[in-house]
Amino acid sequence: MGAGCTGGYEVKYIDEFQDPELARRLLDDIHAIVTRPWALMEVCGGQTHSIIRHGIDQLLPDGIELIHGPGCPVCVTPLEVIDKALEIASRKDVIFCSYGDMLRVPGTGRDLFQVRSEGGDVRVVYSPLDALRIAQQHPERQVVFFGIGFETTAPPNAMTVHQAKKLGIGNFSLLVSHVRVPPAIEAIMQSESCRVQGFLAAGHVCSVMGTGEYPPLAERFRVPIVVTGFEPLDVLEGVRRAVRQLERGEHTVDNAYARVVPPEGNPAAKAMLADIFEVTDRAWRGIGVIPGSGWRLAERYREFDAEHRFSVTGIDTREPVECRSGEVLQGLIKPHECEAFGTTCTPRTPLGATMVSSEGACAAYYLYRRLGTTSGAVIPSGTATMAARTSGSAGSTSEPAPLEGSPVV
Ligand code: SF4
């Protein structure tokens, strides 16, 4: 990682982006700027985890609220697509490949782990190219890769379809549920219940797509949008720049993650996306259909579309009535305000995807906080926080319970 500039403080190595002294100086800057309450949304689940893990929200001035956004790819994959995955993975002729996080995401009544325990050939892979390799090794079987996620994970999936076509691997297909951030920001701002006054945009998404899609949104909704990274100092710098704009009455796009995000993004990845995918309306779990918010395979690659290949129909989806993840994903409630949080819903017995995913807000609150639930139960404490370190208290050093599966970004 190259040298970066965080609030005028030069840092070079990753652990310096967690330095409590630099964090204290950034916090002092934020406290000096703020004159009134502001509500900011961090778009990405990775940022949410950094905020909760390090206690950043507890260090900000009173009245600065961080609303957790819908940027967790596992969480927003619609139930109907999960149920289609379960149907396809149950077929005898199929090897179903997925990142590990998806195996515990509840569909209607079961998950991919259960399909595997019932004899389905469900395999955890770390790249879509692993799935393509499996397809080459097993020409007699159909190999399906579960292609979910934001603009960050779409390019390798697009590249894999490109390779499959080039190599003539006809037994490979992709179950696609890709989503795009800018239409989600638009939908959030158009919601009647929206309280968001500024955004911390997801840095890794912008490293692919650049920043060009955001100025029209900042202008139309008169909100500052600050491209922000994931380490504690990155988040604090994003907050500092967003609050500074709000206090000045400004609403521009500001790149606070320039060490990773060039304004134009990654032209090669964008060209690959434009070739393989086309924009489509997409349902977000717990939120509903957002126009133009997804990608599907373009017509000329339809032969690699698992939905097209397996024609899975007759899906009858049922969400658990007690799960309020839709409200969590829209920032309308905090996870511990859900009655099931920490009682009937835990990472080991998740009712919703936001408790499963390594980027889900419910999992973050469960792993890193000691919070009384609405039913009076108390959940375990998490790791030592930056809040503890900057305030000089010992904090907890107990390790959080690990989530199973590999991270999906
Ligand atoms: S705590 Fe569990 S039941 Fe409640 S919203 Fe989160 S995932 Fe759903």
TrEMBL record:
<keyword id="KW-0479">Metal-binding</keyword>
<keyword id="KW-0408">Iron</keyword>
<dbReference type="Pfam" id="PF01924">
    <property type="entry name" value="HypD"/>
</dbReference>
<feature type="region of interest" description="Disordered">
    <location>
        <begin position="387"/>
        <end position="409"/>
    </location>
</feature>
<dbReference type="InterPro" id="IPR042243">
    <property type="entry name" value="HypD_1"/>
</dbReference>
<protein>
    <submittedName>
        <fullName>Hydrogenase formation protein HypD</fullName>
    </submittedName>
</protein>
<dbReference type="InterPro" id="IPR002780">
    <property type="entry name" value="Hyd_form_HypD"/>
</dbReference>
<comment type="similarity">
    <text>Belongs to the HypD family.</text>
</comment>
<dbReference type="InterPro" id="IPR042244">
    <property type="entry name" value="HypD_2_sf"/>
</dbReference>
<feature type="compositionally biased region" description="Low complexity">
    <location>
        <begin position="387"/>
        <end position="398"/>
    </location>
</feature>
